[in-house]
Amino acid sequence: MLGLVDCFYNNYLLRGSQNYQSIIKTLPGFPGNLPFKLETGYIGVGQLDEVQLFYYFVESEGNPQEDPLLLWLTGGPGCSGFSALVYEIGPLSFNYAKSRVKPTLELNPYSWTKVASIIFLDAPVGTGFSYATTSQAYQSSDTNQGAANYEFLRKWLLDHPEFQSNRLYIAGDSYSGKIVPLVVKETVNGNDAGRNPKMNLVGYVLGNPVTDEAKDTNSRFKYASFTGLISEEVYETGKRNCKGNYTYAEPNNTACAVVLQVYEQCIEKINLMQILEPFCGYLSPKPSKLERAESALMEDPIDIHTSRSPWCRTYNYIPSYAWLNDKMVQKALHIREGTIENWVRCNTSLLYTKDLTSSFGLHRNLTEKGLKVLIYSGDQDISVPFLSTMAWIEALNLTIEYDWNPWFLDGQVAGYWMEYYRNMYMLTYATIKGGGHTAPEYKPKECFAMIDRRSHSKKEEERKKKRERKKERKKEEEEEEEEGGGAAVMVRSREVQRRKKKRKGNFLDGLGRTGLIRFDSTQIFDFRLVFDFFNRFSIRFLTVFALKY
């Protein structure tokens, strides 16, 4: 690999590196022209642009001028943006039945690009088609990814000024739960410092996010109890003896060691990404229990045939290796020849340092920035259980706007959600019923509905205006209390009670205003009509009764 770097250094770097983009109109394996705008390119970051980050950009299929812009960072670290493009939220997917002989692509009806423009980034360096022109530049870490990805985004927007005014979200899933908040922080700081261009940052989106790996891992024990993977006796014994540490037993703590041994035996053959799906065997030597979740996500069975029984989800990743290592495909995508040896979906040999223990502090600081945040969890994921995500969200000490309630799709419960706020900051948390670790991969229709209902600019403005009105009312009440003394306090108390009653009475309206739920005949029965009918019936009955008697 380093030999390739040295050769390419002479042929490319000395000519001067410039940002490079190409519009892709056709792709091998897809019939006809692409019905959406696809751009690929490289953008250099670092003092000498020594890191060349590759990206796929798909313009919104709806209204590119008005729809939001997402920068998507896939987890890993080291998993390609192509994985999200084809297996999660992008406009293409593999037709697995037709891909046994040769990879064949088809359209994804639930692509998020129907409501947003998305940049799928191969980051950090060494991921996908991203490369470096020096061996030293291949070294990266959690903390330097915030600055590198912000620099990429800044240069991309300078090259694409038509998107500078679009609402911007930084998004990702899995390990990007640590990286996305860093990029958001850099973006906020860049705007505050007056850097060009000023970005219209609205918020960020995270799916099953790694936040604090120790706490995420420990929460699996509780999740295993909740889902019946371990007995109540094992759970209670573990609580008594393991002191909150369920990854390893302390020396001489025999009682805890026995519990953890039973626990490991119970989940050893469970698919950690989605506990209801078949367990995928390991091609490499069996990993330790601390490595299992990462291995399950990043290891692909590239040396076995897709017809092997029983089916395993990782078999779906096989076509991506054959397709993206095809020279014709690389030529169509305008990949720079000689920059990488082989494309892999997730690069497990990065020169990468995990130097951020927890991203919780970043989330806490960002609550003061007036952002709109969506956190979602596939509820069948044990690698980063929803219990762990809910725990750190609760620790932010936000005010609950709407408590735990179901949200619906096609008249069925699609998951559950809550909404929190602090001043102009708003966080929505949603679960995806039946979803796994990369939720859109398992529940594409539900995840598209979730993001679609949050992508409309009018709803965002209504929510912003509502929060501003609420803030103004609170300020007026405080002023009245100062001026009017005790009388004002009584008036304020009555007003608060009136509003609480109004809020309860308009609960279903409140669901609609969140953007996660919209009322129509295909999604939820409108109980307000029933309430209105009974109210009118009661009034008429009492009137007739009074006149008669």
TrEMBL record:
GO annotation (BP), single: proteolysis
GO molecular function: acyltransferase activity, transferring groups other than amino-acyl groups; serine-type carboxypeptidase activity
Name this polypeptide is given: Serine carboxypeptidase-like 18
Keywords of this entry: Carboxypeptidase, Glycoprotein, Hydrolase, Protease
A Pfam family matched in the record: Peptidase_S10
UniProt-listed Gene3D superfamilies: 3.40.50.12670, alpha/beta hydrolase
Organism of derivation: Jatropha curcas (Barbados nut)
InterPro entries, A to Z: AB_hydrolase_fold (IPR029058), Peptidase_S10 (IPR001563), Ser_caboxypep_his_AS (IPR033124)
Stretch list, region Disordered: 458-497
Biased composition (Basic residues): 464-473
Cited PANTHER family: SERINE CARBOXYPEPTIDASE-LIKE 7 ISOFORM X1 (PTHR11802:SF224), SERINE PROTEASE FAMILY S10 SERINE CARBOXYPEPTIDASE (PTHR11802)
Family: Belongs to the peptidase S10 family.
